[in-house]
Amino acid sequence: MQIEHVRSYEDLERYLREFTNFSGDPVPYDFIGAFHLFLAILDNLANHSIEADFEPLEEDPQLLTDEQCKFLGKLGRIALSLDGAKMNESG
Fold it and tell me: How do the domains of the chain map onto residue ranges?
């Protein structure tokens, strides 16, 4: 699917799940491009969420798959490592 075909929330979700690169070609996979899309969503969540928005995440263990939890954990470990390195640079 290409971005110009996105007409609904479901289309957008499918586009993001199937994203390989901006042109929609199956290869090459653009990890950095996909990661920038993830960062845009992360910024959106950080800027617009309130504390109550987190309750469903804590109450529904099925909301995230095991694979998603593992991947978020990997990103979290990398983020903590980078944060530590930035603190060492500034300190």
Answer: 1-48, 54-91
